[in-house]
Amino acid sequence: MTFAYIPSPSSNGVSVGPFFLHVYGIAYVFAVTGAILVTRPRWAKAGGDPDLVYEAALWGFPAGLIGGRIYFLITTPSQIPDHWWGPFAIWKGGLGVWGGIVGGVIGGLLCLRRHLSKADILRFMDAVAPGLLVAQAIGRIGNYFNQELFGKPTTLPWGLKIDPPHRPPRFERYATFQPTFLYEIIWNLLLAALLVWLGNHRRIKPPGLFALYVAGYSGFRIFEETVRIDYSVHVLGMRLNFWVATLVCLAGLAWFASIQWGWGRGRGSGARADALPAGSATSDAPRAQSAKAGASTGH
């Protein structure tokens, strides 16, 4: 018998007049806000224009939603609601984080390349990495309200009580489960703090912090995918995202090593990247400000 547990919310949203607002969607709004609040001072400290973070978010957020939903539709087609609007119903099944990251990065880069040099884009990636982890942590709160993304049954005092309609097949007789979404929230915040510390106390060549974000988050997902019990396509007896996380983690570690030790490029290019000052604007700043002044206000 379990004497202590984390209760689940009785509802996954609130009614406002004729509208029902899903906490899942509200969490994403707060997630973007959190990423902006973390990234603006970091980019300003690096000598960049903090207002550029707003524009990058305007590009990256919708691109991330599109990429995340496309990944979900490709990898879990059986979970799509059987209606014409099913593919667009992100509150039914949600988003795939890998597609969201790829889509958000592509959207952000399309924005940044209009304003920054290649070297500054790499520094911006390091500035935004902790903010992305904070955003992902906040976004997981929506999973709590949806009673999803939990793990195997447990009697631990921090087990999450799941209502019967949300329990997966073969687990109907269990009441409390591993709160894997909570584990991910804690991990993401700790990893974000570590990246900030490394950026302040160690000389990391850009975009080394971003590479560690990719590797660190994926490394945790390797563990998480061995605990989760929700529906997933399986490959060689393991969840699909277990293999995706493993490959992305290894790629992130290799990327970090390549950045720091110059694997695959000449010593000259590594020296130029290392010479960029971390606390002042580069020589491309005037061009960046000019480009921003001429940019459309519709972005």
Describe this structure in words.
This protein has one domain (22-280). The protein has helices at 23-45, 52-75, 97-112, 118-146, 180-201, 208-225, 240-261, 267-274, 285-294; strands at residues 13-16, 19-22, 160-161, 176-177, 234-235, 238-239. A hairpin with a 2-residue loop joins strand 1 (13-16) and strand 2 (19-22). The longest helix has 29 residues, at 118-146. The relative contact order is 0.14. A two-stranded antiparallel ribbon has the order 1-2. The protein has a two-stranded antiparallel ribbon with strand order 3-4. Helix content is 58%, strand content 5%. The model is unreliable at 266-299 (pLDDT under 50). With 299 residues, it is mostly helical. It is globular, with a radius of gyration of 21 Å.
Features:
299 residues, mainly alpha, two-stranded antiparallel sheet, 9 helices
Order of helices and strands: EEHHHHEEHHEEHHH
First-to-last CA distance: 55 Å
Averaged pLDDT: 86
| Overall radius of gyration | 21 Å
* Overall geometry: globular
SS-derived structural category: mainly alpha
Treating each run of at least 4 consecutive H or I residues as one helix, how many helices?
Answer: 9
**Helical percentage:** 55-70%
Total number of strands: 6
Largest sheet composition: 2 strands, antiparallel
Low-confidence stretches: 266-299
Biggest sheet strand line-up: 1-2
What is the domain tally?
1
Seen as an oligomer or otherwise, the chain set is: single chain
| Strand residue percentage | 5-15%
